[in-house]
Amino acid sequence: MHVGRIVAAVLLPPLGAYLARGPGRDFLITCGLTVLGFLPGVAFALWTVLRDERREPAAA
After folding, report:
1. How far apart are the first and last CA of the chain?
2. Residue 30 in contact with residue 14, Cβ under 8 Å?
3. Of 9, 24, 26, 43, which is most buried by a Cβ count within 10 Å?
4. How far is CA 40 from the centre of its chain?
5. In sequence order, which residues have a C-beta less than 8 Å from that of residue 19 and are 6 or more positions away?
6. Residue 48 burial (CB < 10 Å; 0-12/13-18/19+)?
7. How far apart are CA 33 and CA 53, in angstroms?
């Protein structure tokens, strides 16, 4: 688990989404939601980061 991505998603939601998924659709959605309201941006960024965490294969 990448604690830094979770902290970034809470403090600066677009940064957390960028670190988890790169510059793309999720990053733009997070930027838009953060402009509309901080809490929706945080919620979506956390969902994006945690969704990305589940997709990573287990370390051998």
Report:
1. 15
2. yes
3. 9
4. 12
5. 2, 4, 5, 8, 49
6. buried
7. 21
Q: Is the Cβ–Cβ distance between 44 and 29 less than 8 Å?
A: yes
Is the pTM higher than 0.85? The answer reads no
pLDDT of residue 51: 85
Sign of the Cα torsion 31, 48, 42, 44 reads positive
Assess contact for 41 and 34: CB atoms under 8 A. yes
Q: Which of 57, 58, 46 is nearest to 21 (CA)?
A: 46
Report the C-alpha gap between 15 and 11 in whole angstroms.
Answer: 9
